[in-house]
Amino acid sequence: MAKVEQFEDLIVWQEGLAQAIGIYKLLADCKDYSLRDQMRRSSVSVPSNIAEGFERHANKEFIRFLRIAKGSNGELRTQIHLAVAVNLLDAETGQALIAKSRVISSMLQNLIKTRLERF
User: Fold this and answer.
1) According to a count of CB atoms within 10 Å of the terminal CB, is the N or C end of the chain lower?
2) What is the domain extent for residue 14?
3) Which residues contact 106 (CB under 8 A, 6 or more apart)?
4) Is residue 43 within 8 Å of 83, Cβ to Cβ?
5) How many Cα atoms occupy the beta-carbon half-sphere of 16 within 13 Å?
6) pLDDT digits over 55-66, tens only?
7) Is 2 part of any domain?
8) How many C-beta atoms surround the C-beta of residue 10 within 10 A?
């Protein structure tokens, strides 16, 4: 396993950033500006909070921001369900996004657990 020296080295940050980029691109033409903007904000919040917590250089703070990122990821997943329910996203796309979000949530939980056990 490679040594993590900066937040960009974290796979969960990379996955969170990719998720946010995907949401931005997917919703570029969405006319429901309110839901589109909320989904963009919650998706960006995931890698942003991982980065902010990492940069604080304090384990307790890092864990707190990982939990915030996990919450934002759950918020995004709820918004994906809503977007499918109101036909802004097709079911197949929605399920793929939900699956990706669940993977990120699991990665965050594992990182939280590791940080709690080690430090």
Assistant:
1) N
2) 8-118
3) none
4) no
5) 31
6) 999 999 999 999
7) no
8) 18
Measured in residues, the chain has a length of 119
Calpha distance 9→47 (Å, rounded): 12
**Structural domains counted in the chain:** 1
Query: Tell me: the pLDDT tens digits for 30-70?
Result: 999 999 999 999 999 999 999 999 999 999 999 999 999 99
Tokens 């020296």 belong to residue: 5
The whole-number pLDDT of residue 27 equals 97
78: which 2 tokens?
């709820």
Phi, psi of 56 (to 5 degrees): -75, -15
Which CATH number does the domain housing residue 43 bear? 1.20.1440.60
Q: Is 113 exposed, middle or buried (0-12, 13-18, 19+ CB in 10 A)?
A: exposed
Q: In this predicted model, what pLDDT tens digit does every residue of 94-104 receive, in sequence order?
A: 999 999 999 99
Q: How many CA atoms lie within 13 A of 12 on its CB side?
A: 25
pLDDT reported for residue 1? 56
